[in-house]
Amino acid sequence: MTPQKPKCRFRDSHGHIVTPMGMSAGCVVFMREGYPHPCQQPLEKFKAEYVEVTDDCRTE
Question: What PROSITE patterns has UniProt attached to this entry (predicted)?
Fold first, then answer.
């Protein structure tokens, strides 16, 4: 059994919260709060535009 990784959330420049789900073809796949479908951004764009909400990291 592998240890669970923390589920961290990020905030975009508009204040929206997202939760990364994984990577696909060089893109970060994430869920946006209040939006029913997965979204994705290229990794470099995600790193430049999203800030980790450090007090919101948790293990599940």
Answer: PROKAR_LIPOPROTEIN
Which 3 state secondary structure label does DSSP give 8?
A: strand
pTM of the model: 0.75
The single-letter code of the amino acid at 26 is G
The CA distance from 18 to 6, in Å, is 14
pLDDT tens digits along 7-38? 789 999 999 999 999 999 999 999 999 999 99
Q: How far is CA 17 from the centre of its chain?
A: 8
Joined together, the tokens standing for residue 48 give: 């430049």
Query: Of all helices (H) and strands (E), which one includes residue 43?
Result: helix 43-49
The token duo for 1 is 């059994």
Number of Cβ within a 10 Å radius of residue 28: 21
